[in-house]
Amino acid sequence: MIWRIRLNYALGSIVSAGMLSWPNGRPSYVVLETIGGLDMPWWVWPVALLLGAILLLIARGRIWLTGAYILTAVLITAIAAGVVLSVGPTVQLGPAVAVVMGCIRQGINARSEVA
C-alpha cells in the first residue's frame, strides 16, 4: 500500500517534468523562468521534479521519506503557483492543491512507516 502511494506521487512528478520539458507544446511560464530576478533555464524545473521523484522512490527510513514527501509538496506548490501566475487560475489548480495536501499528509504519516 505504501509503495503504491509513493509510486503515484513519483509518477505524477515524472509526468509533470515531461510536460514542462515538452519542446513545442509548452507555454511560456514566465514566473518559473524568472524567479527573484534570476533568469533560469527551462530545464531547471523538470530536473528538480525528476530528482524529487527519484528521492521519493529511493528514500529509506522515516526521516528521509518525510523529507522526500515534503520536497515533492514544495516543488509541486512552486510549479503550480508559477503556472497560475503565468497562465491563469483555470489550469488545474484544484488537482494541484489536492496533490500537495496529500503529499503533506503522507509526509506527516511517514514516521509510522517501517522502511
TrEMBL record:
Which residues span the membrane?
7-22, 42-59, 66-87
Keyword hit for Transmembrane? yes
From which domain of life does this come? Bacteria
Question: What's in the keyword line of the UniProt record?
Answer: Membrane, Transmembrane, Transmembrane helix
Q: What is this protein called?
A: Uncharacterized protein
